[in-house]
Amino acid sequence: MPEDIILSTSGLTKEFAGFTAVSGVDLKVKRGSIHALIGPNGAGKTTCFNLLTKFLPPTRGTIVYNGRDITGEKPAEIARLGLVRSFQISAVFPQLSVLTNVRIALQRKRGDSFDFWRSERSLKNLDAEARRLVEAVGLSPFLELTAGELSYGRKRALEIATTLALEPEMLLLDEPMAGMGREDIERIEALIRKVSAERTILMVEHNLSVVASLCDRITVLARGQVLAEGDYATVSKDPRVVEAYIGSGGGHGHH
Ligand SMILES: Nc1ncnc2c1ncn2[C@@H]1O[C@H](COP(=O)(O)OP(=O)(O)OP(=O)(O)O)[C@@H](O)[C@H]1O
Ligand SMILES: [Mg+2]
């Protein structure tokens, strides 16, 4: 049986004034998987994400999502198709409560249907759905706190809730654990595992122990190119991967 691929790129390339940040990347992400994109600083991971969500136009190459060529689509259309990047699209308002933040995200999702807002019943449904999302990310005890009062890890959980409000089929996470302590890392790791149950996740992550325990498949980028691919045991033993990380001085801790 052929693999069920939700997202693939072919020859994806991005040049910045003669410098090639992403170079001929062929990526295949299996539906339902947690796929990691790793590599030393400057490898081109974030640029790849920017290409996938169409924040940047590629110089060359194609992107296919759910069998559809999305290379020429606009960012809003990509999100509408269910491919959503967290921590960028999902702004969190620090002065508003946890519940209000999630409600606003839900309202944005349904923003196109004005009539929806006229009925009291719809507003009640919205409230119930917001509470359900808050519960899903483990923030029920903090419903009435403002986002600004949350710890760093819980703020990330709230950002994930506001992203989930958009009902993504595939979620892109760029360094979800960046700047976190061990306790928050464990919490967000569990949350990512939970939300992955019904969707596909592609994540950039420097914390390799998180990658090892969370991700089914790993693509290693170095200098814009795919260096290795496979499960953690395979890529972590690959001499080219070891070399790339050593050559870059460890590959993380730059934030
Ligand atoms: N808008 C831009 N203009 C010019 N060069 C850029 C631009 N964006 C990224 N680059 C360069 O492209 C290369 C890849 O950057 P990118 O941010 O994709 O790396 P990364 O793998 O995400 O690194 P990190 O792990 O540090 O986040 C870097 O050399 C960077 O300086
Ligand atoms: Mg980056």
From TrEMBL:
It comes from the Bacteria. SUPFAM superfamilies: P-loop containing nucleoside triphosphate hydrolases. Keywords: ATP-binding, Nucleotide-binding, Transport. The keyword ATP-binding applies. GO terms for molecular function: ATP binding; ATP hydrolysis activity. Pfam families: ABC_tran (PF00005), BCA_ABC_TP_C (PF12399). The keyword Acyltransferase does not apply. InterPro entries: AAA+_ATPase, ABC_AA/LPS_Transport, ABC_transporter-like_ATP-bd, BCA_ABC_TP_C, P-loop_NTPase. Residues 7-248 form the ABC transporter domain. PROSITE patterns: ABC_TRANSPORTER_2. CDD domains: ABC_Mj1267_LivG_branched. GO terms for cellular component: plasma membrane. PANTHER family: ABC TRANSPORTER ATP-BINDING PROTEIN (PTHR45772:SF3), CONSERVED COMPONENT OF ABC TRANSPORTER FOR NATURAL AMINO ACIDS-RELATED (PTHR45772). This is ABC transporter ATP-binding protein. It comes from Bosea spartocytisi.
